[in-house]
Amino acid sequence: MRSSARLVGVFGLAVLLLGFVLEADAASARARCRVRNGRVRIQVDGMNLAPGTYTATVTNGSASAMSKPQTATPLVPDLDFDFDSTADPDDLDTFIPPTFAGAGDTIAVVVNPGGLTASALCGNR
User: Fold this and answer.
1) Which of 17, 48, 55, 73 has most Cβ atoms within 10 angstroms of its Cβ?
2) pTM (2 decimals)?
3) Which tens digits make up the pLDDT trace of 36-81?
4) What are the Cα distances from residue 17, in Å, to 4, 9, 14, 44, 85?
């Protein structure tokens, strides 16, 4: 009987630890949007991504913009995609017009491949 209880305890602990590992490995996306003094900046974070090449697309109504591709690796599973109305063509940031969003607009975000989604409410901070 004691060995059965010990086995159940060990099995329960293994399931609990596996749950933490699986949750930690789940890919996710987060977005933030800021509008200030005629400038729009949208930041998209892809976290715990599987190795591969990714893009982020931001959409506000009929306007959309796609980031430059970035590569996630086992050592670098998190990627940052930035969209900015002051970006230059040589920047890593993707240019969006200053009229892309206004304070109070909700921006939809998709990180592909995989179709991770997020949204952000644009604030004027």
Assistant:
1) 55
2) 0.78
3) 988 999 999 999 999 999 999 999 999 999 999 999 999 999 999 9
4) 20, 12, 5, 30, 44
Q: Quick count: other Cβ atoms within 10 Å of Cβ 34?
A: 17
List phi, psi (to 5°) of 40: -115, 130
Q: Which residue type sits at 116?
A: L
Enumerate residues 6+ apart whose C-beta is below 8 A from 84: 39, 40, 41, 42, 91, 93, 94, 95, 96
Q: What stretches of 4-112 adopt beta strand conformation (E)?
A: 28-36, 39-47, 52-60, 63-66, 70-72, 79-84, 94-95, 106-112
Residues written for the chain:
125
Residue 96 near residue 107, CB atoms below 8 Å? no
Supply 3's token pair. Answer: 């060995």
The two tokens of residue 1 are: 């009987």
Statement: residue 17 has pLDDT above 60: no
